[in-house]
């Protein structure tokens, strides 16, 4: 018998044979691709999403997530290999349960782990002996042990013997075709060595490389460090952009040349601000937790200040560009290109584009937008609808503001047809230098 006892040995066998039923709680950007990956690997999968309309959509085989084409999802659903439900009660037959629910911030930027708590309570109601639970949601170090463990051991079940618990951060990059789920190494920390072993075995079935670490806390910290690293470096390069403008040079030229250094340098790009579910929120999970331990994280606060100031910096670039043409913002027609927080996705959560459009509207600008992946967006209580890129008359606008470098936006056409351009992503960089094109 192996170190995890009879129950663990039974689960191990079922994982290796891929007969174990895998439950996924939360079928969003993270949970849906994961559920599909397990189903495609041959596991019977039960996916649970508490949003009934989302569950109904998925149960029909329609995917709302770009990285999971409906053509991939539908056969799995139709063949019953991926069953979608709206209640965690459906997980009573699941051998391994992975929790992928949101972890937003509260009003004063404190962690809101209410979704994790609700998911854990739902799982604890159905958790039987010999089961494995893994949390994937990004969260502060200690969540798995302090929040999940007491809830799941309620009935006196012993962790590491009668049930197994681990944390493994999701590291996917939506829209990234090079680094897909299976190719991104998976960090796994278990409450006990048996928990780590079984969780590693689970992911080993669908992911090329598993990196075991000594505890769930370390795995939780790894994810927060990765995203803090990005946030801080983006803030640094955003500040470099501000400094380069003051000193009259192109930040893009500076970064391009610096990136020729073959060691000790990694290029990051400036932009209109950070967005999405992760970067604006995750570092605050870390600073909140360390504040409780009596330490004030300074880099995180500073990066937040600089990145958070970028939307207004872009608005200022627009105001100055119009001013140069003796135009006021008030009454100007402005076309925003892209409202998603990054290229290739339709996700507008915390997108800086929304704050920029709202700010321009507040100054009296008449703003339209084009985003092939976002048909409509609410801005300041009103619903804006996307124009079609192929049909929109760029010359009809006083200024075209590129906020998201979607591949659809042909930079040649933009430079040729628009009267005045503010390009926050250097999408037009390869086309050349033009008096009517201003880059961040
Ligand atoms: N989006 C990303 O690129 C990304 C990357 C890595 C990690 N993460 C992390 O993964 C987690 C999930 O993020 P996401 O982008 O997939 O979120 P999401 O909002 O796209 O999806 C979460 C889903 O969970 C559902 N849900 C909420 N509470 C539930 C419950 N109690 N039971 C069942 N379903 C429930 C919601 O209805 C939603 O459909 C977050 O912690 C996030 O920080 C996200």
Report on the structure:
The chain is of the alpha/beta class. It has helices at residues 5-17, 31-40, 52-59, 70-78, 114-126, 143-152, 193-204, 216-247, 251-258, 282-292, 298-324, 352-362, 411-417; strands spanning 22-25, 45-48, 82-85, 96-99, 131-135, 163-167, 186-190, 210-213, 333-337, 366-370, 376-379, 382-385, 399-402, 421-423, 437-439. Helix 8 (216-247) packs parallel to helix 11 (298-324). The structure holds nicotinamide-adenine-dinucleotide (NAD). The site of nicotinamide-adenine-dinucleotide (NAD) has 28 residues, from helix 5.
Quick gist of this model?
With 440 residues, this protein is an alpha/beta fold. It has helices at residues 5-17, 31-40, 52-59, 70-78, 114-126, 143-152, 193-204, 216-247, 251-258, 282-292, 298-324, 352-362, 411-417, and strands at residues 22-25, 45-48, 82-85, 96-99, 131-135, 163-167, 186-190, 210-213, 333-337, 366-370, 376-379, 382-385, 399-402, 421-423, 437-439.
Question: Topology, please?
Answer:
Blueprint: H1 5-17, E1 22-25, H2 31-40, E2 45-48, H3 52-59, H4 70-78, E3 82-85, E4 96-99, H5 114-126, E5 131-135, H6 143-152, E6 163-167, E7 186-190, H7 193-204, E8 210-213, H8 216-247, H9 251-258, H10 282-292, H11 298-324, E9 333-337, H12 352-362, E10 366-370, E11 376-379, E12 382-385, E13 399-402, H13 411-417, E14 421-423, E15 437-439
Parallel strand pairs: 1-2, 1-4, 2-3, 4-5, 5-6, 7-8, 9-10, 9-13, 13-14, 14-15
Antiparallel strand pairs: 6-7, 11-12
Helix pairs in contact: 1-7, 5-6, 8-10, 8-11, 11-12
């Amino acid at each position: 018998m192996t170190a995890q006892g009879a129950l663990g040995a039974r689960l191990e066998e079922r994982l290796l044979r891929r007969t174990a039923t895998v439950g996924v709680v939360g079928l969003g950007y993270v949970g849906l691709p994961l559920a599909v990956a397990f189903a495609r690997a041959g596991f019977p999968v039960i996916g649970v999403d508490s949003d009934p309309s989302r569950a109904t959509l998925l149960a029909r085989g329609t995917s709302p997530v770009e990285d999971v084409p409906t053509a991939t999802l539908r056969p799995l659903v139709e063949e019953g290999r991926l069953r979608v439900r709206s209640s965690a009660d459906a997980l009573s037959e699941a051998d391994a349960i992975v929790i992928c629910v949101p972890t937003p911030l509260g009003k004063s930027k404190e962690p809101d782990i209410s979704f994790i708590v609700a998911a854990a309570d739902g799982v604890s109601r159905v958790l039987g002996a010999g089961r494995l639970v893994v949390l994937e949601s990004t969260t502060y170090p200690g969540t798995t042990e302090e929040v999940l463990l007491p809830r799941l051991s309620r009935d006196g079940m012993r962790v590491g013997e009668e049930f197994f618990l681990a944390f493994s951060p999701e590291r996917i990059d939506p829209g990234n075709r090079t680094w897909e789920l299976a190719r991104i190494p998976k960090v796994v920390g278990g409450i006990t060595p048996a928990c780590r072993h079984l969780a590693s075995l689970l992911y080993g079935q669908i992911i090329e490389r598993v990196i075991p670490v000594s505890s769930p806390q370390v795995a939780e910290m790894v994810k927060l460090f990765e995203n803090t690293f990005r946030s801080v470096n983006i803030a640094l390069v955003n500040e470099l952009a501000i400094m380069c403008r003051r000193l009259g040079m192109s930040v893009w030229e500076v970064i391009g040349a610096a990136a020729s250094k073959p060691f000790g340098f990694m290029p990051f790009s400036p932009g209109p601000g950070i967005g999405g579910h992760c970067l604006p929120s995750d570092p605050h999970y870390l600073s909140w937790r360390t504040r409780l331990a009596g330490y004030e994280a300074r880099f995180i606060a500073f990066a937040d200040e600089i990145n958070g100031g970028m939307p207004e910096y872009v608005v200022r670039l627009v105001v100055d560009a119009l001013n140069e043409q003796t135009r006021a913002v008030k009454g100007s027609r402005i076309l925003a290109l892209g409202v998603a927080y990054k290229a290739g996705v339709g996700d507008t959560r915390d997108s800086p584009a929304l704050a920029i459009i709202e700010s321009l509207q507040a100054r009296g600008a008449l703003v339209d937008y084009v985003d092939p992946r976002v048909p409509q967006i609410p801005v300041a209580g009103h619903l804006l609808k996307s124009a079609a890129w192929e049909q929109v008359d760029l010359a009809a606008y006083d200024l075209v503001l590129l906020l998201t470098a979607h591949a659809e936006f042909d930079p040649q056409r933009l430079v040729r047809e628009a009267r005045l351009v503010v390009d926050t992503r250097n999408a037009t960089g390869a086309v050349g230098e033009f008096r009517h094109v201003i880059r961040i």
